[in-house]
Amino acid sequence: xxxxxxxxxxxxxxxxxxxxxxxxxxxxxxxxxxxxxxxxxxxxxxxxxxxxxxxxxxxxxxxxxxxxxxxxxxxxxxxxxxxxxxxxxxxxxxxxxxxxxxxxxxxxxxxxxxxxxxxxxxxxxxxxxxxxxxxxxxxxxxxxxxxxxxxxxxxxxxxxxxxxxxxxxxxxxxxxxxxxxxxxxxxxxxxxxxxxxxxxxxxxxxxxxxxxxxxxxxxxxxxxxxxxxxxxxxxxxxxxxxxxxxxxxxxxxxxxxxxxxxxxxxxxxxxxxxxxxxxxxxxxxxxxxxxxxxxxxx
Length: 298
Fold this sequence. Notes:
- It is a single chain.
- By secondary structure, the chain is mainly alpha-helical.
- It has two domains: 10-63, no CATH class; 71-297, no CATH class.
- It has helices spanning 10-19, 27-34, 39-46, 65-105, 119-135, 139-147, 156-159, 165-174, 179-187, 193-211, 246-260, 266-274.
- α4 crosses α11 (246-260) and α5 packs antiparallel against α8.
- The radius of gyration is 23 Å and the shape is globular.
């Protein structure tokens, strides 16, 4: 089937939404927002309130444009909160991985193929790292290449600072099981590195969504964190949760933040945010009944 839908003006967008049942309290204000936030972007926030099996996508409950905008703003604030928390987590992960392995295996341990379980994956990932190093404009990378000739690439504490979170998670997963890897998992309150590996992959995907201004509130993650049966610190009492919904990854985040950043305000800010939007369906986000009573959310 060929695509043949023509572009429509903002006035036509408003009329179309009105025909489908969306209520407008102030069409002039709505036109202003639609000129700065695309119709298609807002469609992701109207979608759950429409019957999308019918061609005209009628709204199935009374909803106002202002409520949809409130939901959009909620999601933006959630994205900013998550991105802020992930920054702390990502920096801590880099620091602990680099520190443990450099002390044991030397400055360029990350290039030692003997430390990795799968040689083909190592070659792919290390070449990707070299590409990221070559693209980097960081002063410390330029200084190393200007001053030193051997080894050709900078030490781990420089090289891995410019690696993407996704690449770092792949390198860490491919590292053979050893005392250093186990020690890093324990520093994050996790008994086994396999749990940390899955969390790192999930954090990397979540970071990419945030970096590209993607929707979070009812997102279904394709890379899901493993929910541990045992943890070194208090985790969730009710672990019967959906690992692909936001509540699971937010719980993993707050667990780690309690360890690396005691006294952080992530919990309070999330709790306040969850109370700020009338259209929020906590169950749709995977939140369990009584989640605020869980120790990690206190």
